[in-house]
From TrEMBL:
Gene3D superfamilies: Spore Coat Polysaccharide Biosynthesis Protein SpsA, Chain A (3.90.550.10). It comes from Algoriphagus chordae. InterPro entries: DPM1-like (IPR039528), Glyco_trans_2-like (IPR001173), Nucleotide-diphossugar_trans (IPR029044). The keyword rRNA processing does not apply. This is Dolichol-phosphate mannosyltransferase.
Length: 257
């Protein structure tokens, strides 16, 4: 797919990793091969399988476009993305993407997410599994139902007008991340994705869902757990209550002119 907008925008894809040696080299190559000069930041939580070392080896080939932050221990998805967001804002990237390392998100769809936001018609583009039905491949039916029902639950409790509330494939214009008080983001697991969408919406940013096909990983091990779903269930209620008694406000100190 061709780019619809400015090829000069600085674009950073953030991929958190923990034990992704089976996928990391291929996903890096796929992103590096895209048109438009995407850059990639891998945030590795001390993977004992050597994921970080594989990234370092590829940095020799993509020195100016492939970046790595190594953290000590498994600190959680949400904190990894917050670390990446701050890193991106400090270096003045225009568009910042979230993507998994395991090819459940098709790297080619990064261009579609970018095109949705590039002319500023939208501030946040979400790769949605459920906007045109249920577009999930290789997931067991129980997990599909859990994910789909979770989005219905989120919409019912919060009013968030998104069909895939837990989606983790996204493109932000930098103004969204500047406007959110990143140090006040509470959740680290499944609920992190819901919180970021809900906060963006409550702050008045324009969200759009772009249909994608989500394909479950074929290599490596899933990082999902019961605790992640528990956090999301109770987290949605607490976010709604907070929005009633403490309205969301833009982080004016973080916004650039």
């Amino acid at each position: 797919m061709a780019f619809a907008q400015n090829m000069n925008h600085r674009k950073l894809v953030i991929i958190p990793t923990f034990n992704e040696k089976e996928n990391i080299q291929e996903i890096i190559q796929a992103v590096m091969n895209l048109d438009g000069g995407f850059e990639l930041l891998v945030i590795d939580d001390g993977s004992p399988d050597g994921t970080g070392n594989l990234v370092k080896a590829l940095q020799l080939s993509f020195a100016d476009r492939l970046h790595l932050i190594e953290r000590q221990g498994k600190l959680g998805l949400g904190t990894a993305y917050i670390t990446g967001f701050k890193w991106a804002l400090e270096r003045e990237y225009d568009f910042i993407f979230e993507m998994d390392a395991d090819f459940s998100h098709n790297p080619d769809d990064l261009i579609r997410l970018y095109n949705a936001c590039a002319d500023r018609s939208y501030d946040l583009a979400i790769g949605s599994r459920y906007i045109t039905g249920v577009n999930v491949v290789n997931w067991p039916m129980g997990r599909v139902l859990m994910s789909y029902c979770a989005s219905i639950y989120v919409k019912f409790i919060t009013g968030l007008p998104i069909k895939d509330a837990t989606a983790g494939f996204k493109c932000y214009h930098r103004s969204v991340l500047e406007g959110i008080k990143l140090d006040e983001v509470r959740f680290v697991g499944y609920a992190f994705q819901i919180e970021m969408k809900f906060t963006s919406w409550k702050l008045g940013f324009k969200l759009v869902e772009i249909p994608i096909i989500f394909t479950d990983r074929t290599k490596g091990t899933s990082k999902m757990s019961r605790g992640i779903f528990k956090e999301a269930g109770f987290g949605v209620i607490s976010m709604k209550i907070k929005s009633i008694f403490s309205p969301y406000q833009l982080n004016q100190s973080g916004l650039t002119e």
